[in-house]
Amino acid sequence: MSATDPLVLAVPKGRILNEVGPLLSRAGIGPEPEFFDENARQLMFRTEDPGLTIIRVRSFDVATFVAFGAAHLAVCGSDVLMEFDHPEIYAPVDLEVGRCRLSVAEPEELAAREDPKRWSHLRIATKYPKVTRRHFAARGVQAECVKLNGALELAPRLGLCRRIVDLVQTGSTLRANGLVEVERIAEVSSRLAVNRAALKTRPALVNDLIGRFREVAVAA
Question: Are the beta carbons of 152 and 125 closer than 8 angstroms?
Fold first, then answer.
């Protein structure tokens, strides 16, 4: 990308769009209507700010787009930032949306008879193997992680493992599958993530956007 090209903002697909939309509008960068149409095949969208283009990508890909400079900024879950821990990414603003938690869950009958303080070795299904291993290593617990990208709640029922680590918002999906939270690893929210090189090479434009997002996040 050249220094005259519009900045690129990456935003994750899915449920977060409804929460991010008002923030974008208040920051003066509301996207074209097709951005909110999940059936739209296009992935790049114009905004009210002629100097900014938005792309819509999978939530776990957002950090990669920013880290490698394909996007200059992004709305990115703190769970994704923790998992990938890219040194090229600076996350200066908590946008106060997309709030949930990253938790350990297990079948109700298992929770009734086992004390988490006595764990020494666990097999856990998760999308977050790095975060999970770090969390348990800090307690002296060895975590063997089975990487899954979806349907984690099925893993204990089908004997793949006894526990999972996943995002929890209301807990209804866990309850529907006979699981309960037994340990909370981290509180999660969406952050404004910035490519450090872009901040150095285009400081005026990037800092302007950081300021606009910070202002609307505080007012939210």
Answer: yes
The angle that helices 16-26 and 203-219 make with each other, rounded to 10 degrees, is 110
What separation in angstroms does the CA of 193 have from each of 47, 107, 128, 214?
Answer: 19, 36, 19, 12
Ramachandran angles phi, psi of 106, nearest 5°? -150, 165
Question: Closest Cα partner for 35 from 191, 52, 4?
Answer: 52
Place of tokens 């776990």: 60
Sort strands 100-107 and 121-126 into parallel, antiparallel or unpaired: unpaired
Please report the pLDDT score of residue 117 as a whole number. 86
Sequence-separated (6 or more) residues with CB below 8 Å from residue 124 = 104, 132, 143, 144, 145, 146, 161, 163, 164, 165
Q: Measured in Å, how far apart are the chain's first and last C-alpha atoms?
A: 33
- Which of these ranges, 10-19, 45-54, 137-146, has the smallest mean pLDDT? 10-19
DSSP of 137-190: HTTT-EEEEEE-SS-TTHHHHTTS-SEEEEEESSSHHHHHTTEEEEEEEEEE-E
State the residue for tokens 């935003």.
11
**Shortest CA distance to 220 belongs to which of 128, 99, 61, 138?**
99
CA–CA distance, 68 with 83 (Å, rounded to integer): 16
Banded pLDDT at 3 (limits 50, 70, 90): low
Tokens at residue 135, please? 């969390």
DSSP codes, 88-101: TEEEEEE-S-S-EE
Give the tens place of pLDDT for each residue, 114-137: 888 889 999 999 999 999 999 999
